[in-house]
């Protein structure tokens, strides 16, 4: 599971890019300017940062410079309309791992992100995960059993993926809500229980699979 910090002040573009990345299994946190990016970076430690340069409050170059004072590892990719050679050179000198000119293809962005992550020793999670008799395809958000296949919502797929990747471990409720629903003021712990119930129903054909509610703490997935 790859956590992406996406910094872009053009909200319509940000929505398109975020949706496209999420459809490919990334977890995307979008912020509007460099100041917000610094706060998020320091609090959540993303796996990779994709950032515009021309932004209000704090531009991308300044943001990268501040991040590199304490973090020399997390890949930074500039995604910007600034195409002059001196801008590209400046971006790399400030610690960027890559520099993509707008307009761009989402496929190119994903390939560049994957390359930066691999170079950093943090490759992306496999797109297919096996759980008992089931196979979860994270890129298509489908759960398959034999010849049958169930289409999951993005959040159902990501939640199940998180549980599989932490099999036999407790995944805290607060961590799940913060990761997938931090921007949804109407989402509650009760809502999370509903999502877990749906996932249990999807997995009901394999009796070996259990998702246990650790009261007051979180959930643990096990396979007998």
UniProtKB/TrEMBL annotation:
Organism from which the protein derives: Sphingobacterium daejeonense
Keyword annotations from UniProtKB, A to Z: DNA-binding, Phosphoprotein, Two-component regulatory system
Positions of the Response regulatory domain: 3-117
SMART domains: REC, Trans_reg_C
Sites bearing 4-aspartylphosphate, chain numbering: 52
Protein name: Response regulator transcription factor
Entry-linked Pfam families: Response_reg, Trans_reg_C
DNA-binding residues: 126-223
Residues of the OmpR/PhoB-type domain: 126-223
């Amino acid at each position: 599971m790859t956590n992406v910090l996406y910094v872009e002040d053009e909200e319509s573009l940000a929505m398109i890019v975020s949706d496209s990345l999420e459809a490919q299994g990334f977890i995307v946190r979008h912020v509007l300017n460099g100041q917000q990016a610094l706060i998020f970076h320091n609090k959540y430690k993303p796996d990779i940062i994709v950032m515009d340069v021309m932004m209000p409050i704090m531009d991308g170059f300044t943001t990268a410079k501040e991040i590199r004072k304490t973090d020399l590892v997390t890949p930074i990719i500039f995604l910007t309309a600034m195409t002059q050679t001196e801008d590209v050179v400046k971006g790399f000198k400030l610690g960027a791992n890559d520099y993509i000119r707008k307009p761009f293809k989402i496929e190119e962005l994903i390939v560049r992100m994957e390359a930066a992550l691999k170079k950093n020793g943090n490759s992306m999670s496999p797109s297919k995960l096996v759980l008992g008799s089931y196979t979860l395809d994270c890129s298509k958000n489908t759960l398959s059993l034999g010849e049958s296949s169930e289409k999951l919502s993005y959040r159902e797929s990501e939640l199940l993926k998180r549980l599989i990747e932490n099999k036999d471990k407790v995944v805290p409720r607060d961590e799940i809500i913060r990761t997938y629903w931090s921007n949804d003021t109407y989402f509650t712990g009760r809502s999370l229980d509903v999502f877990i119930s749906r996932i249990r129903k999807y997995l009901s054909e394999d009796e070996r699979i259990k998702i246990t509610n650790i009261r007051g703490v979180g959930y643990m997935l096990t396979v007998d």
